[in-house]
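Practice problem: predict the structure.
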Amino acid sequence: MVPAAFIALPAFPLTPNGKIDRNALPEPDALGGDQQAYVPPQGPVETAIAAVWAEVLGCERIGREDNFFALGGHSLLAISVIERLRRQGWTLEVRALFLEPTLAGLAATIAGEDDALAADNSAAIAAALATTIPEDCTAITPAMLPLVDLTPAQIARIAADVPGGDANIQDIYPLSPLQEGILFHHLLAGRGDPYLLRSLVAFDTRARLDAYAAALQAVVARHDILRTAIAWEGLDEPVQVVHRAARVPVEDVMLEDGVPQDGGSDVAARLSARFDPAHTRIDVRQAPLIRLFVTPDPVNGRWLALQLFHHLIMDHSTIEGLQREIAAQLRGHGQLLDTPVPFRNFVAQARLGLPAAQHDAYFTDLLADVEEPTAPFGLEDVMGDGTGVTEAHLAIPSELALALRAQARRLGVTPASVCHLAFAQVLARLSGREDVVFGTVLFGRMQGGEGIAQTLGLFINTLPVRIRLGEEAVLDAVRGAHGQLARLLRHEHASLVRAQRCSGVAAPAPLFTALLNYRHFAADQAAPDQIRDGQAPAAPTDGSDPWAGITFLEGQERTNYPFALSVNDMVDGFSLSAQVREHDPARVCAYMHRALALLVEALAHAPDAAVVDLDPVPQDERHRLVQDWNRTARAYPRARGVHQLFAEQSPSSPSSRPAPHTSPSIPHIPTSNWPSSSPIPKPRC
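Answer:
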């Protein structure tokens, strides 16, 4: 594995414990020995883009031939680039940066972006966003709801379920594509909820717990999505109803001493067991879709709070944003937070942005000849409630993590592209197919406007990726995966139901049953597999620690898919989290680890090798299959013939008849009549 760049240091930076401080190591500003001669930006567009890249990527100098991803860029940084360029008046879509990652190539696309955006109904979006329900309104009319068609009777029915009626309704609009799917599975589950998120937090005092609850309430008051309920009864389609005011229910739970029926003697375990999403539901018709259950833990001298959040209102990025805002509130800096962007802006973009015909054309071209689902381990049920799923985690060794980033930068692609190809290899082996389709979780914020990165809500979406593992070279396969992901960004708001209808897979069979979630974690954010034995988010550098006395004990995410793998990109490394039904998830992590290692090795030393020849089966499993489980050799006395061995064995069971055999047959001759050197009797013809 060859690094993409080298940096000479007079000495390694060390931590107080004497170990190498990885966070203090400088980032390479280019591709080391592979970089081309510096060519300065030309013209105002390239100059503006270069200045933004330098700011976002932390590079001193950007040339017109430099590649955004080779310099360390990724999807989150891409959004920052686009937001900054839009503030300067340059119109650009994020997908353009993935398709044209060089400075000169990206600048050349700007001229054509205006027409593309105009064709995407931007005028209709602007008109819809300009119409809202007046603040002092006590009688909502259909004209106030540009994103949904409702009759006065339907509006009245919705208002009847809202505390305060019309006066407490801030907005009503449709669900996003993924919200529709999550609501379906919520209603399908008879017991429990596969999309109820749970986290357990410990506080050193009740006063600190109450301060945390107050901070959470302040954040809820700021964001429309956190004050949202879902309505569907008596309506043509489900809608989300934003309340002007909604209080987070905080319920004191008293757990009896001893060993109750809901768990052991440990208070934390008993609290988690009582509100396990496997058998717990919340009423999504009542805002907010957040619950807080608190109880004392006198043995450990602390208070516990179990939080339930419904996936209908938040995703991973929203959880991160929620923590940042709670921290600001705890520090008394809530008034310094930016004015939030309404979630309705995203819904408007998703509903009115790209015409449905363009979605259909893309997915038909991609999937029309796919007639069977890709189902690893034969797992085909995507209607599960999350029960029966086990989870495993694996940290990617630092050497492989560094090599993965280096090879991705060298090729000018994202590590996510390499991971998607590796996941396809895993699925190919576990499903017996070389042409695989799986779901990828898209960030969902690529088409949004200014402030979209800080907006809270459920933005992610799941859409299909198709990868054919034939004789294509590894290098071409990685670039092909990157190109497909870049093209998919334009359709990130499409409905999965629409995409499946464009395939040749007949309903009700699913198009795929495996899910890949590549997600970025901020430097101060712990991935789920890192929440072990309690920890708090990193304290801010200004010395004020809002998390003092607060410890996050556990978190749980679930899905209806029977086979899901998350790749956690944590800036300084990677980890894997697998959730699999009926099979060992650790085995899936091991497959993915080997697939990544083989891809990185091939990219470095054999980029023209056929990707299908890279076998992700780990060495220990291969040895178990080929050697341990195939030990059929037996000691054989070579000095005697088979007929002699038969003659010796026959007297031990004289009443047993020989095994039946099809004609021609061997006549029965008592072995006592066989001479010791007699040949085997010949069959009759």
